[in-house]
């Protein structure tokens, strides 16, 4: 009996110590000198080939900030990785593991890096007050920060992707009036991600008078004979390809098999990397893709990263031929936005590690205009971006790349803008419906009367 | 009508590709009663090894031979490390062992050879052939021919060679086969080696079709209904099952999918497989188990 009592006392004492440590954490956060920035990576599993260059881009930029710029206003960044294998349950587990911060530093921003993971974390992030930055993935209606205060589908939502692709077709056809009567088929990954563009395309088809054809491809998409037989039957003028993983090279190869011209296929963001088109071989030459992450190593910031990080053997990239690739540059882009949001928050809250609420403020007041982009060296790599409570996307434009058999070349005339003014009312309507369904009271927009 | 025929032909040719993977399952099941879940991982491992060797500058045939040697070494290792210690265990134990093995092979392959996506060019022209109003893929025709040659070679191997006859004896009655001096462990190594060769052929053709990447392991998802329909013990059954699955998959996607407002390809062939299970539990060509009670 005495032993039992002793054990209970010991357990109670341990609990008290643990509770004391927990209570002390906020104070420790104030004392922290470095900013924690956890990374939910996928370096193994089915999508590792996409993830590895992305994280290399992110880590190389963070290293550049630390080593060349001495951190963000003197606050150095530190990070660790949690492997998600791009699986929802592991992504959520990683988020839960890191959300409390580390070494006294809170988490300013979390990059879920995966559409299903993002959707699973939408409500948790609100409860935990940690902003999710989901560039080119996540719910489009999360643009409305009044309803989705901690979701930031920044730069280029799926709706903008679809609209920009249509605007590029219009550019090629000689104007938006020339869209009338065209047949545009969307070959999409049969998943919530793939279906996300159905609504905007229906609206755009109604507005501009083109025929909108939707053809699903089941996961993983390694056999598309039937889908492309339908394409041959329907004879569309253009195909908008919204794939993921193996679906893209198989689509390009199968298109060639049925004689569909490859330069009439425009890949979406996740069908537009070197990893997507290289396996297609020679038949991929001429393939187009729209992306907010233009490929190339000639951007000023990439030259600096090469000089200070890559050439000094400090890069996270194992295969240096991926330097300047679409995925590598996407990682750099994401890191730039995160760093600039932290920098913006520091202007208000002080040069110290910031927390999620402050990170949200930093994001909603982020303004990357051409002048700032030139200062960073990201002009041309990143589009001008101004976020607000009402607009968590900010940009909404992409560049169109064409594969020449070896590398991507930018073929659009600068950034191809989407019809945001046409799409936004519908996006806000959907956000309001979500708020009603979830019984969320939208927060006020400080900029509106 | 031309469109229907074209879809049907495309589906049949895709079915042959699935049959190629299914043959690997059949070989091992036939010889040892083990449902080798690791066959998809073996396809990935073989294709990844081949392209890695090619990237190192090895000539095509030399790379193929070295890959085959590696697959044989893998087969011997599997027999020594996994199967031999589990001999006389239940089938579910052996199945679980191959399930674990698949993760080990996938993980080790990526660890050693990297996770990059590789192009694999077999030099097969892939422009379509026009037969009247119908287009047929040249690549798929070559793949079908390769599958045909493979089936023929395996049939000769099983029916004419001493090893093949021994394998059939083991498949028919392992106890009786052992009692007349057939060396089970040696035959297991041989059959896993042959399955490795089949994985190499399947890996090269699938890898050429979609690039060599992790998702090669997913091709087994369509090989399973092929096995259920064709039977787990018949190579000819794998081919017929493949043709049925390929044709049904393509036709359902075109004609049933739009009616239901989405893709049906992932589940329709499984509905078909379950229907076959209800009518012919051993599949079209599978051997019915008859036991004295």
Automatic annotation (TrEMBL), chain A:
Spell out the InterPro entries in the cross-references: Leu-bd, Peripla_BP_I
**Gene3D superfamilies assigned to the protein according to its UniProt record, in alphabetical order:** 3.40.50.2300
- Look up keyword Signal and say if it applies: yes
Signal peptide span per the entry? Answer: 1-29
Q: Which SUPFAM superfamilies match?
A: Periplasmic binding protein-like I
Residue ranges occupied by any Leucine-binding protein domain in the UniProt entry? 41-370
Key words of the record: Signal
Matching entries from PANTHER family are given as: BLR6548 PROTEIN (PTHR47235:SF1)
Family membership, please give it. Answer: Belongs to the leucine-binding protein family.
Would you tell me the protein name for this molecule?
A: ABC transporter permease
Name the source organism.
Answer: Chelatococcus reniformis
UniProtKB/TrEMBL annotation, chain B:
Taxonomically, the superkingdom here is: Bacteria
Where's it found, cell-wise?
Cell membrane
The GO terms describing molecular function are: transmembrane transporter activity
Q: Which GO biological process annotations does it have?
A: amino acid transport
Annotated InterPro entries: ABC_transp_permease, BCAA_transport_permease
Q: What is its main location?
A: membrane
Q: Matching CDD domains, A to Z?
A: TM_PBP1_LivH_like
Topology class, membrane? Multi-pass membrane protein
Protein name (record): Branched-chain amino acid ABC transporter permease
